[in-house]
Write a structure and sequence with these properties.
Elements: H1 4-24, H2 44-61, H3 77-97, H4 99-116
Length: about 130
Amino acid sequence: MRDPTTTRRLTTAIGTLLLTTALATGCSDTHGEGDSAAPHTDPPVQVCAKLITYWAGQDLTGGHWAGLDWEQKGLSNDQYVIYDDIVRAARAEQQRRGTDAARKLIEHQAKQRCTAADGATHSSENWRPPPT
């Protein structure tokens, strides 16, 4: 049988842990008027640019997951075309001016190309828009 003091301490510790976890993950009862409880989702253009920037950077530096295919990377068909073009350009830039310059090129071109293609999400049966 447990000592009542030990049980009380354990209960208090578990309660504190649950409360801390809830606060750290944003669970609260203080939504303002018009606030939604739905999770925040980035617009397709931003998702496209983030994905391409991340994966192109991984390929550029030989990251652990660089060898994944386009589906495993979460890219649509059109995003993969953009990604592939950018990786080629970044490798050439890396040879000319170094890795930092190549990373800047990746970021700039990903934003530019994803914006021009409106997120490049319309070419894949695997991509689904976030629920509204």
